[in-house]
Each structure stands twice: as structure tokens, then as C-alpha cells.
Amino acid sequence: MRANGWTELYDWHIDRASNTPIFRQIYLQARAAILSRTFSAGAKLPSTRELASRLRVARASVVAAYEQLFAEGYLSGKIGSGTYVSFDLPEPVDRCAPNNGTPRNRKRRTYRGRALAIREFPEASLQDNDRPFNTGRTLVDARTLAIWRTLTGRCLRAFGDRELMYSDPRGSTDLRKAICEYLQVARAVQCTPDQIIVTSGTQQGIDIAIRVLLRPDDEVWVEDPGYPLTQHALAMAGVKLRPIPVDAQGINVRAAMKAAPRAAAAVVTPSHQFPTGVVLSMARRLELLTWARETGGWIIEDDYASEFRYSGRPLASLQGLDDCERVIYFGTLNKTLFPGLRIGYAVVPPPLLKAFTNARCLMDRQPPTLQQAVLAEFMQEGHLAAHVRRLRLAYRDQRDLLVAELSRCARAYLTVQAPDQGMYLVANLRQGLRDIDVEAAARRNGLVVRAMSPLYKKATPRSALMLGFSGYARQRILPAAASLGRVLRMQAA
After folding, report:
1. Fewer CB near the terminus (10 Å): N or C of the chain?
2. 386-492: what fold?
3. What pTM, to 2 d.p., does this model score?
């Protein structure tokens, strides 16, 4: 790799009066310099020891910043033997004018939704099944449950006439402020409370986006394999799905541009691709943003389960890199806390905010007042952060237990690795075993496992199982894994 001296001359600095942690200040400075090409591809960064000495900070802060930059694809090499700006990042593009959601010399589209009859989809009947290893399950520990009950009583006692009336369709001011602060710190999202719209979950948010942004016969990129409920919602709206293959770097943006260069939107899960679990590489992220800027396409970012990363800090959002207001960001607290909460959120670019708010109002007027009040206090008092920290440890333990037990009792039939993030793992079946057959046999034996091959559209399917581990205590995981081993033995016989 080539090196230059610009990083040595860079004005590294620390604001010791800031509330932003020191490691994050270093991370943000380096990221901004890389994206602006102040640090060119291949440029060598100062060693962690050198930079710590220059800034008069603990070396651990610099190491933490570098590790996050490595995880997100900005850097290559190895800490301790030379750290360099990655060569994989594409060339920068011209930035758009502030608050301008359309490319130059192109007329802004107008969008109209269309109501279609709702079709059934097979996943609905399985959502409330608590048998191992169903996906999307959560644990609520005794501490969180006790706090939630206390806050619910407190909020209910404080309710007056105002809380019982109609309110802002976007959600309460207190909750939108709490969500905004949380996303800025935890997910590097660029937003203000006014841009937050409270939804019942990610699926409702995406449904609003479809109504506002898309017309029948619009082309939309979807990941292949991808999340079937989102694809069902798109199909019901009459849009043309363009399945785009997913590889080790995430959705293949170049293949997408070749297949449908003028697509109206791309729906992606960049931080933890569903179902493969891969992370969209930094090069692909920038390619995707470039496409959106140049064509006027929209990017719908589904950031599900982003809180549960088990090695290193959560990766920054794609929305945080967007400087032309082309990304609509969706997340949910239903998986962070519990599915019965029914609260998610959308971060909407200002030019689209009025249309999204009106669509939200037309769908079900406003979110529930009591749940919003309880959740706002839960977040403001720091309980959500503590809850996530506890569950990361619990879910990591459950993940490791399941991986170890499957490796012990079923290694002849599958291969499995512990995922760095998420609430389920992927087990690849040996050649000759069909995942749909194993899924059916497992269900007859009291287990819910999900075959991956039906999630593919055009790409070559892989025979694998998705096994949820997040919602099951240790005492349920061991016998369930042993039972799955027996099912596999019978299927292989």
C-alpha cells in the first residue's frame, strides 16, 4: 500500500468540553476526512500510540475509534502493523444542495398510492408460536418488567384530558425527542425530532413509504434473498420487483444498476442483511448512495435488530452517510423490547415529511398515547440503554450455547458459525438435505425452524435453516438442539 504524509499533517483535535466520547470524536474526524478524500485511498494513518500521544488521550480511545472504522470498511491493514485507508471506496460525487431531494435538471416525481386487496401470507400464523427456534422472539427480564409496570402506573396517574384527546400523528414530542437522541448516539443517524414519525413497527413504516413514494409499475430493487413481508407489501402495491443478488458484501449494486438503472427505489437491510446476516460493505454503501443521487431513486433502509451486535460497537447507519436526503430510515423497538409494544419509527427527509405525516394520519390517526408516554420515560431515564446492555450479554450467551450444542450433536449434518449480530443464526445443511423437508419434519417434532431456500427469487438458493436464539432461555435451548439433531439424523437416513 502507498502512504503519504497528509494524515500526519491533519489537524486532529479533541473538544474536551464536548459530551461526545473521545473515541467517537476521533472516529468522526477520520470518517469525514476519508469520505471527503482529505485522506486518499491507501494513505497511512498515524499509529494508535502516536495519535494518542498527540491528542493526549488514552490509547484505548484511539484503538476503539480505529476498530469501528475497520468494522465499517473505511480502513484496512492491521492495528499495530500499519493502518491504511481502504482502496475499496468508490470515487466521491458532487454533493447536492441542502434540502434538495432531487437531482439537478430533473423534475421531481409526484407519487400516488393505490389501495389493493390484502393477500394472505404464510408467516402470519407462526408469529405467536413460542416453540424453539422461531425467529423474532425477545426476552423481557424481571428488571425491565418491573420498571415498565412502575412507569405505566406513574404515567396513567398523571393522565389528564389532554392525553386522552387527539394528538400529533407523528407521535408525542417527548418520544420523538428521545428516539432522535438515541438514534444520533447509537446509530449515527442525522435527524431532528421533527423528522421522526412514530409507527407501529417497521412494516407499517415501509407501507407508508410505498404509499407515498411509489406508483404501480415502478421498478424497485429488493435483496435476493430478502425479507418476504416487505416483498409482499411491494407486490400488493403493484410495483415491479427487481430481485438483486446478495453476496459477501451485501446487495450487488452494480448488478442492480445493470438490471434496473432507473428504479424508483431500493429496499435494503445494510447493517444485517435478511436472511444471510452479511453487512453491506462501505464501497457498496457509497455506490448505492451515488445511484440515488444521480437518478433520484429512494433508498428504504430497514435497520432491524441493529442494537444486538456482539463484537464491537453497532455499525453506523446508511442514512448517516446520506447528504442528499435520499434515504428513508426505519427501525423498531418491538424487537429491542417486546413485540407487543407495537412502536417503531421512521426518519423522513424534510421534503417528504408532510406527505408521510398525512399518510400516517390516514392509516390510523396517531400512535397510542399511554405506550408513548411510558416508552419516552423509559428511554429518558436510561432504562433502554441498560436493557440493551443486559440483553446483549444474554443473547450472546444463548447464541454461543446453541452453536456449541449444534456442533456437538449435529455437526455431521450442518455447519454453523456464531453471527456477530442479530437474533438468529444460519445453519448450512450438508449436501443432500433439503431445508424445506427439515422444516416440515422439525415442526412435526415440536420445533419451528425456517428454511432459507424459499426466500430466494432468482439467485441460486442455498439449503440452510434460520434458527432464532434470542427468545429462549438456556434450559430450552439444549433439549431443542438435541431434538433438531435427531430430526436431521432421520432426514439423512
Report:
1. C
2. Aspartate Aminotransferase, domain 1 (3.90.1150)
3. 0.85
Quickly count: other Cβ atoms within 10 Å of residue 13's Cβ: 11
Residue ranges, comma separated, of all CATH 3.90.1150.10 domains in the chain are 386-492
Name the nearest CA neighbour of 248 among 411, 73, 67, 1: 73
Q: Indicate the DSSP class of residue 481.
A: H
Q: Report residue 304 as a C-alpha cell.
A: 432491524
Q: Give the CA distances from residue 297 to residues 189, 221, 320, 421, 480, in Å, rounded to whole numbers and listed in that order.
A: 20, 10, 17, 29, 45
Where does CATH 3.40.640.10 sit in the chain?
122-126+160-381
Supply the DSSP string of 147-208, one letter for each residue.
HHHHHHHHHHHH--TGGGS---TT--HHHHHHHHHHHHHHS-----GGGEEEESSHHHHHHH
Instruction: Give the Cα separation of 277 and 399 in Å (integer).
Output: 14
Question: Alpha-carbon distance 294 to 37, whole Å?
Answer: 20
CATH architecture of 6-85: Orthogonal Bundle (1.10)
- CATH 3.40.640.10, domain 122-126+160-381, yes or no: yes
**466-491 tens-digit pLDDT:** 999 998 988 999 999 999 999 999 99
- Which has more pLDDT, 442 or 45? 442
| Residue 331 bridge partners (DSSP) | 345
Q: Which amino acid makes up residue 33? A: A
Report helix, strand and coil shares of the chain as percent, to nearest 5: 45, 15, 45
Please give the full DSSP string across 55-77, using - where no structure is assigned.
HTS-HHHHHHHHHHHHHTTSEEE
Environment class of residue 54 by beta-carbon count within 10 Å: exposed (0-12), middle (13-18) or buried (19+)? middle
